[in-house]
Specification:
There is one protein chain. By secondary structure, the chain is of the alpha/beta class. The protein has a single domain (6-218), classed as Vaccinia Virus protein VP39 (Rossmann fold), CATH 3.40.50.150. The chain has 6 helices and 10 strands. Helix 5 links the parallel strand 4 (117-122) and strand 5. The protein is globular.
């Protein structure tokens, strides 16, 4: 089995999959609410009413429909910061009336947090990341003290390290049946492993779509 480097993986047709999260909105049919068992609109509006500010970072955001739907539902955008990041530039045009939203094209492997967020979401995006644990560590460090991270993840696509033990040690919740990771508040995870590379030929995971499996070895 040949493991791909990050530079090779970015060109994989598996990683460029456009079927998983291109069209989803925040709430309703085919939404983040359904996939994450979590209502982003209710949570963000609660943060906004309590503090007057709110920040949502949506990773692997697809066309950005969830962010746009939330922004258009606001009665006022003061204090609201919305950002979407995706590997592919297929974002919908930001409506003229929306001034709190930005999109960025980039790989999550080159992303490093410079702000803290009230909500970080990643709907079916981590399936296609190479060094999944590095990305997760960066995400978890970018949460506000009461911020929430929620994402779909299949632990079968992480090999060579006991991820359940890692999550338990850092008080990170993982719902095995739903394949759902949630975490409230930031975590600073010590990297005690070595990333070996990724395989894009391991076939479908629980979603029925082909995914990328990441391989690690424990540091000695």
């Amino acid at each position: 089995m040949k493991l791909l480097t990050e530079a090779e993986l970015i060109w994989s047709p598996i990683v460029a999959n456009n079927r998983m999260n291109r069209k989803r909105v925040a709430n309703g049919v085919n939404s983040y609410e359904k996939e994450l068992f979590f209502n982003p609109t209710t949570y963000l509006n609660d943060c906004l009413s309590k503090r007057g500010v709110v920040k949502w970072l949506d990773l692997c955001c697809g066309e950005g429909n969830a962010l746009i739907q939330y922004a258009q539902g606001l009665t006022q955008q003061t204090g609201v910061t919305l950002k979407g990041i995706d590997l592919v530039d297929q974002f919908q045009e930001i409506p003229e009336a929306v001034n709190c939203l930005t999109f960025e094209v980039r790989s999550l492997l080159t992303w490093e947090p410079t702000e803290q967020y009230d909500l970080i979401s990643c709907v079916h995006g981590i399936h296609y990341v190479g060094d999944k644990l590095l990305v997760l560590a960066n995400i978890l460090a970018a949460l506000q003290p009461a911020g929430i991270f929620v994402a779909n993840i299949d632990l079968n696509n992480i090999q060579g390290i006991d991820v359940r033990q890692l999550f338990a040690h850092n008080s990170i919740d993982y719902h095995a049946r739903r394949k759902l990771l949630t975490c409230k508040g930031p975590r600073h995870i010590d990297i005690t492993w070595t990333y070996l590379g990724a395989d894009d030929q391991t076939g479908p995971n629980y979603t029925g779509q082909e995914a990328v499996t990441s391989f690690y070895s424990l540091a000695t």
